[in-house]
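Following up on my earlier thread - several people asked me to post the actual chain instead of describing it. Fair enough. Here it is, all 77 residues.
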Amino acid sequence: AFTDNKSVVQAVHSTGLVDDKRLRIDIGAIREFLKRGEIHAVKWCPGEMQMPDCMTKKGAAGYKLLELIQMGRLEYM
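Reply from S.P.:
Thanks for posting it. Predicted structure:
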C-alpha cells in the first residue's frame, strides 16, 4: 500500500494512539490488514510520483501512470 502522507506510515508502525478518532479507526484497519497478510507493507510515495495526478491536475505528466499500466508494477520503490 502506498500513501503520500508520511504521518500515516509512522502511525501504522507506531504503538502510540493517533489523536484523530476517525483516523484511529483507519490506522487500526491498516494494522489488521498487515497482521493478516492482506497487505505486505505501507510505504510513503513522494508527491511527484502520485499516479492519479495526471487525471486530476492540469498539466501533470501521465508517463508514470502509463508505465505502471504497461509494466504492472512501480519501478521507483
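The radius of gyration is 15 Å. That should answer part of your original question.
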